[in-house]
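Worked example

This section walks through a single chain of length 157. The input is the sequence exactly as stored; nothing has been trimmed or padded.
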Amino acid sequence: MESLDILELIATLNSMIKAEQENISELSKLLEKADHSIIKFIAGSLIHDSEKHMLLHQALIDILKGEVKEIGVQEKMAILNALDRHMKIEEQAMKALESIRAKIHMKGEVKLLKKIEQLLNLQAEEEKRHHKWFKEVVNVLLEKEDAWKEVLHKLKV
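Given that input, the structure is written out below as tokens.
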């Protein structure tokens, strides 16, 4: 079994950050020129996704370099409360979307309504994955600090 080279992992994460930055730069040009709400939505969503990836990669680099300080109780509570608020707002939005989806479905086979229903279904599925992802990421990054230290200690040996 091949051993993990931390410097190689850090270099890979840095290169992934650079690729995301280049992607954001190109998408930002498209977004700036866009005069259509659909193009703005798609480009903006892709930019947001790339920004999220960059932030995660940088956090992992900081962890691997041992540059992450202990997260204080107040900071941890603040982010957990923010996550809870975020989830509650999105749960309310999901209820509203479900109501809209039900009304659209009752209207029958109108093609435009079917497309809207399809997009709302996709949004609902994405929100479910989004909630699960955030809960798991927060659990790994906030609740398992001792585990990170243990893993890093083993990797440095």
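What to look for: The chain has five helices and no strands.
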